[in-house]
């Protein structure tokens, strides 16, 4: 068990980083520092820098359904998170033109909750337009061939809002958060008698932070700081954009379920207050290969909407909400995740470096775990390793050949055509 007064350094103030700081502070660790390269929380490069994210528990792998259920319970009851959780329900399906893979993924997701007691009476099958209208009367498009199911026990969280609230909370609990603190290198000690040990980090600004334990929570940027992570993680991005609704339109769409057609993409109810509606395009995602490894691109490089994403977003709107299909798409950009070879998180000690822990591999399903993920990372710190095989370091796996649940082809950023907006 580590001495709770000794310094712990968390590098990266995104979802996993803040959650770790929170759980360490709750467990009475008194010397926790978070370094975040952005000048705000959430940082501009964090995947959590978003108006909303899906909160759902259907998973191909039911192991995560139980964790998501625990997270939903925190989202619903913990005063830090509760104001940002909206249980609007989740309409999950495929459009009439969906490929077989999307249909297969859908059926496996439904399986994970169909017989689960927590969802008894909360799922209804959607086979016709009338079924959809029952779940979401405000969707007025043809929705041709849309099938799937409606799950009332799910919804979304206001991502940036929840991050800001958690930031406030960890500061109140005594965590130091340094903004604008990008690290240039990790610090190691090494001699003939001792093992290599990570003892802290140095920032671009030249400040040194010494610590007994260093936890890297860098999302899709992990490969830059920790090249030894190798091919088990592939930084991948997905595209999203917003449309501006009038107050009348926003009122009409208030409370609609998160609507996700697996082959096209998904949208949320308009953001309360602004009337902005977020729409994401689904697909195999985008990589950014540099010297054979995909790493998260810069904010500047990520500030565009791929042409294919525009097509999918407009198709989704045309089928569900035709009067909005030609609306200008605002703030189109791509959002970086750390995709793991088997979609399992990687939360473990880094082999060959004492005192260094990595928590990565969100695989696009990390944000909903904000209230609880830090507990798992604290466990690795306290047990000095990962007990669960699925979350161990696995550099023998290659994330570039592993995607068996998303349809489409992964594209390299260099080859992506941009939407002309
Ligand atoms: O856990 C969730 O419900 C998030 S799914 C959102 C998404 O954009 C995926 O659709 C995509 O395939 C990737 O995993 C990033 O996250």
Automatic annotation (TrEMBL):
InterPro entries reported for this sequence: FAD-dep_OxRdtase, FAD/NAD-bd_sf, MTOX
Domain called FAD dependent oxidoreductase: residue spans: 8-378
UniProt entry keywords in alphabetical sequence: FAD, Flavoprotein, Oxidoreductase
Recorded superkingdom: Eukaryota
Names of the cofactor(s): FAD
GO MF annotations in UniProt: flavin adenine dinucleotide binding; saccharopine oxidase activity; sarcosine oxidase activity
Keyword ATP-binding: no
Keyword Transit peptide among record annotations: no
Membership in a protein family: Belongs to the MSOX/MTOX family.
Protein name per its UniProtKB record: Sarcosine oxidase
Organism expressing this protein natively: Ophiostoma piceae (strain UAMH 11346) (Sap stain fungus)
Biological classification of the source: Eukaryota, Fungi, Dikarya, Ascomycota, Pezizomycotina
